[in-house]
Structures are given as structure tokens and as C-alpha cells.
TrEMBL record:
Residues 82-211 form the SRS domain. Keywords: Membrane, Transmembrane, Transmembrane helix. This is SAG-related sequence protein SRS38B. It comes from Toxoplasma gondii p89. InterPro entries: SRS_dom, SRS_dom_sf, Surface_antig_SAG1. The chain crosses the membrane at residues 33-54.
Amino acid sequence: MASVSLGSPAVIKAAASASRPPVMRVVPVKLHLAFRLGLLSLLLVATMAGLLGYQPSFVTRAVADEPAKGSACVMEANGGQTTCTCVSTEDGKTKDLAATLSASASVLQLVCESTFTFAPDEAGKQVCPVETTDLQTCVGNGGSKTSIDVTSLLTGNTEGIKWEAVTRETQGTTKKLSIPPANLPYTGQRFAVGCLDSGKTTTKCKLTVTIE
């Protein structure tokens, strides 16, 4: 009968350990799978929310971080300021924009791109009545004055509240209006401003602003 050598216990243990697959090889696979499942879950949430007309906060922040490619109003990701941009369109139609000034969003900036100019012309404290359709008719001087003082819509000491010019490298006009929470009206108010073409004869964008 042939003899069988079983070997020492240490040799058997080492051989068993060598044939056992490393545990660490499985971990990256599990992590990768979990990451993919997480992305899939976010995609499903965003898709369902879009169908229901609701935009999740993480989607809103992502959109806010993207620069406006057309005429649009975008609130900064951290809140506080809303920037509305008016750009030229191929069809030449007036673009209607809307923004809100409130305690949580107390700064409004309007960017009139290219050769556009801000309306009303005599900005300062002037804005247009909300029902104004042709902003070129909204003027702040002369006997046919149609603009209004924005401070007439507010409360408290409004002496320092006015449109301020913002310096930018590109062409166009940029104005900023800041309203401290203490000066917000007790009831909602609205006004309009916008951008005209270089000849100041055509309204390119009308921005309707709600103060609440």
C-alpha cells in the first residue's frame, strides 16, 4: 500500500490561505454598484419631479450655477441676489421676464447685453408702472413724465435706495437695486423696468418685479 504524506499543520494552513480569494477584491465592486444605484435614484427623482412640475433643490442649485444662455432671471445658489439678463433674439420679439424682491432675495441686477440700454432712461430711483408695455414711453423728465419713484412703493427711510451702475467688461448696461428688509412694503407692490435697443425705440426685454 502506498503511503500518503499529510504534511505538517503549518503547511496545510498556508496552502488553504493561499487558495482563498482576497476579500478586498469584492469591496470596490460593491462600492461601484452602490454609486451607480445612487445616481440612478437621483435621476429617477429628478425625472418624476419634472413630470409633476416640481424642481428639487439640488436641481435648482445646479441650474442657478449655470450662466444664462438666453434672456432669463437666475437666483444665485446661495440666495440673496437675482440677476436678470436680456440678450438679443433672432425673432426680435420682446422677452418678458419676472423677478421677486423679498427679505431673502433683496438684491436685483438687470444686465442689458450688447448695445441695449436700461429703461427707464433716467434710472436713479425711477421705475415704470407695471402695466407699461412699451418701455420707451416710460420717461422720468419733462411734462410727459410717466415713470414713478421706486421709493414710493416702500416703507421707512428710503433715502439711500436707488439703482446703481455696475461696471462690466462687456458692452451693455447693468443696474443693481438693493432693498433692505426694513423697507419692504406691508402689502405686495409691482413695477417694471427693462432694456431698449440702441435707438431707444424698441423694448427688447420687460422685467416685471414683485416686491413682497
